[in-house]
TrEMBL record:
It is found in: Cell membrane. The keyword Cell division does not apply. The lineage of its organism: Bacteria, Bacillati, Bacillota, Bacilli, Bacillales. It comes from the Bacteria. CDD domains: MFS_LmrB_MDR_like. Keywords: Cell membrane, Membrane, Transmembrane, Transmembrane helix, Transport. Pfam families: MFS_1. It is a multi-pass membrane protein. GO terms for cellular component: plasma membrane. InterPro entries: EmrB-like, MFS, MFS_dom, MFS_trans_sf. This is MFS transporter. The keyword Transferase does not apply. Belongs to the major facilitator superfamily. EmrB family.
Length: 489
C-alpha cells in the first residue's frame, strides 16, 4: 500500500480558485441581458441563448466528466479547462456580434463544466471520510457564494459601465489560476486506468440531457404547446432511457448508474433534486417580484440577495464541521424545516411587503439551504466505493442542472397559468386594468411559491430516513492507485 503524504492544500487552493471563477461566471450575465439586447439589437428570445447555451454545454459535458477524470490527470484536465474558459471569456469580451458572443459563452461553459466534478473528486481523494465534512463545507462556500455574488456585481457594473466590462474583469481572474496550474499544480494520481470512451453513450447522453435541459428551460418562454419544446423533451427522455439501459450492459459505462444500489446515495440524490427544484423558485421568482412588481432597481435586487449569500458562505465551513461530528440528519431536518417555513412565507407576499422583510426571509432561507446541500451530498458520496467517486460527482452535478431547469420551467408555468386565471377573475370583478397586471402576477408568484413549499416538504420528509453510511473499504480498494501521493507530471 502506498504511503500517504500530507493533504495537498496547495493543489486544492489552485483548483478552488479556478472553480470559483467558473461558478461565479454562471450568474454574471442574468441581469446584463437587457443591456446586451439593446447594444447588439437582438430579441429577448435570442439573448436568452447566452444562458440556455451555457447550461446546455454543462448538461452535455458534466456526465462525461467521469470518463475524463478517470482517464486523464487532474493537472491536464485543469489546464485544458481553464484555457478553454479564458479563451471563451476573451471571445465574449471582444465579440463584434451576437454569434461571436454566444460562441465565447459556450467555450467558457466547456471549461467550466469540468471544474466542479474535478474539484469534488480531488476533495474526496485528498481527505479521509472523518474530515470530509469540513473540507466539503469550504467547497460549499465556493459553490454557493460565487453564483450569489454574480448578480450583485453585475447589477453595479451594468448600471455604470458596459456589459463587456463583466468579461474584462473575469479574464485576468481566470488567467491567475491558469498560470498557477501550469507552473505550480502537481498531480494527485487517481486511478491509472486506460479506459475507452463509449461514443454511443456520449451521443445518447448529449441528446438526452441536452434535450431535457433545452426543452424545459424553453417552456417558460415558448409555452408547453410549442413543437420545439415537445420534440426536444421527448427526444431527451427517450435518449436518456436508451442511455440508461446501455450503461447497465457496459463493463466501462460512461456514467455508472448502478451506484444507485447504495441506499444513502440514492436518498441524497432524491433530497438534492427536490431541494434544487425548490431553491430555484426563489432564484427565478424573486427577481420577477422585486423588479416587476416592487419596481426595485437591478443593483438593489442584487443587494437584497447578498446577505443570504454571505450567510451561506459563513455557514458552509461551520456546517461541514458539524457534519463531521454529528452527521447529515441532525443538520438536514432543521435546515429543511427553515426552507419549508420561509418558502411558505414567500407565498404570502403582498404589494406592500417591505424590502427588509423580504431580505430577512431570503437570508433565513439561505441559512436553511446551507445546512442541507453539502452535508446531504457528502453523506451520499461517502457511501460509495472509491472507484465510483467520479461517477457519483458527475451524477450529482448533472442532476442539479436538470432539476434546476425542470423546477424553473415547472414553477414559471404554474405562475403564468395562475396569473392568467387571476387576471380574468380580477377583470370580472371590475378591477382597473392598471391594477390587474400587478395583482394577477403577484397571485401567480405566491401560488408558485406555495407549490414550491410542498416540493421542499418532500425533501424534509426524506431527511428523516438519512443514516450515517458505513462503507467497507476492501483490500483491493486500498491497493488501487487513488492515493494522495504528489507527483510531478
Amino acid at each position: 500500500m502506498t504511503e500517504q503524504k500530507k493533504t495537498p492544500y496547495g493543489i486544492i487552493a489552485i483548483l478552488f480558485t479556478g472553480a470559483f471563477v467558473a461558478i461565479f461566471n454562471q450568474t454574471l450575465l442574468n441581469i446584463a441581458l437587457p443591456e446586451i439586447m439593446i447594444d447588439l439589437n437582438i430579441e429577448a428570445s435570442t439573448a436568452q441563448w447566452l444562458v440556455t447555451g451555457y447550461m446546455l454545454i454543462n448538461g452535455i459535458l458534466i456526465p462525461a466528466s467521469a470518463y475524463f477524470i478517470q482517464r486523464y490527470s487532474n493537472r491536464s484536465i485543469f489546464i485544458v479547462a481553464m484555457s478553454l474558459f479564458a479563451l471563451g471569456t476573451l471571445l465574449a469580451a471582444i465579440a463584434p456580434a451576437f454569434s461571436v458572443l454566444l460562441i465565447g459563452r459556450m467555450v467558457q461553459a466547456s471549461g467550466a463544466a469540468l471544474m466542479m466534478p474535478l474539484l469534488m473528486n480531488v476533495m474526496l481523494a485528498a481527505f479521509p471520510v472523518e474530515k470530509r465534512g469540513s473540507a466539503m463545507g469550504v467547497f460549499g462556500l465556493v459553490m454557493v457564494v460565487a453564483p450569489a455574488i454574480g448578480p450583485t456585481l453585475s447589477g453595479f457594473i451594468v448600471e455604470h459601465y458596459s456589459w463587456r466590462v463583466l468579461f474584462w474583469i473575469v479574464l485576468p481572474v481566470a488567467l491567475v489560476p491558469l498560470l498557477l496550474g501550469i507552473f505550480k499544480l502537481k498531480n494527485l494520481t487517481f486511478q491509472d486506468r486506460k479506459i475507452s470512451l463509449d461514443k454511443a453513450s456520449l451521443a445518447l447522453s448529449s441528446l438526452g440531457f441536452g434535450g431535457v435541459l433545452y426543452g424545459f428551460s424553453s417552456a417558460g418562454t415558448l409555452g408547453w404547446n410549442s413543437l420545439t419544446v415537445i420534440v426536444t423533451i421527448t427526444v431527451g427522455i427517450v435518449s436518456l432511457i436508451i442511455f440508461g439501459l446501455r450503461q447497465l450492459k457496459l463493463d466501462e459505462p460512461l456514467l455508472e448508474i448502478r451506484i444507485y444500489k447504495y441506499p444513502m446515495f440514492a436518498l441524497s440524490s432524491a433530497i438534492s433534486i427536490a431541494l434544487s427544484m425548490s431553491m430555484f423558485s426563489a432564484m427565478i421568482l424573486m427577481p420577477i417580484y422585486i423588479q416587476t412588481i416592487k419596481g426595485i432597481s437591478p443593483i438593489d435586487s442584487g443587494l437584497l440577495m447578498l446577505p443570504g449569500a454571505l450567510i451561506m458562505g459563513f455557514m458552509s465551513p461551520v456546517t461541514g464541521r458539524l457534519f463531521d461530528r454529528f452527521g447529515a440528519k441532525v443538520l438536514a431536518i432543521p435546515g429543511l424545516s427553515l426552507v419549508v417555513i420561509t418558502t411558505y412565507m414567500f407565498s404570502q407576499l403582498s404589494l406592500d411587503s417591505s424590502y427588509v422583510n423580504i431580505m430577512l426571509i431570503y437570508t433565513v432561507r439561505m441559512l436553511g439551504i446551507s445546512m442541507v446541500m453539502m452535508p446531504v451530498m457528502t453523506n451520499g458520496l461517502n457511501t460509495l466505493p472509491i472507484k465510483a467517486y467520479p461517477h457519483g460527482t458527475a451524477i450529482n452535478n448533472t442532476l442539479q442542472q436538470v432539476a434546476g431547469a425542470v423546477g424553473s420551467a415547472f414553477l414559471i408555468t404554474i405562475m403564468n397559468t395562475r396569473t392568467s386565471s387571476a387576471a380574468k377573475t380580477l377583470a370580472a370583478n371590475g378591477t382597473t386594468p392598471e391594477d390587474i397586471q400587478h395583482l394577477a402576477m403577484l397571485d401567480g408568484i405566491n401560488f408558485a411559491f406555495f407549490v414550491s413549499t410542498f416540493i421542499a416538504l418532500v425533501s424534509l420528509i426524506l431527511a428523516f430516513f438519512i443514516k450515517k453510511p458505513v462503507r467497507p473499504v476492501t483490500e483491493a480498494e486500498k491497493e488501487i492507485v487513488y492515493r494522495r501521493t504528489e507527483v510531478t507530471e
